[in-house]
Amino acid sequence: MNICKALGLRISNLLIEKNITLYRLEQKAGILHGTMMCIINERNKNVTLRTIMQLARGFDMTVIEFLNDKLFLDDNLDID
Prior knowledge:
single chain; mainly alpha; about 0% strand; globular
């Protein structure tokens, strides 16, 4: 799995886990809908640390909590 797919899955899983809508996340994180769709649909290959921080804030999490998931710990995670 590549890093873009892992990020999209993490967002989708957290939306379900925290029972919030994508719209609400976008509002809390300050991320435009188009940008969010590019991330979720794996079209954005260059997600920045700033965006990760915004996502974490939108989920009321720290960056460490956001990234602390088996999706990002997989030895087979392709970061290219």
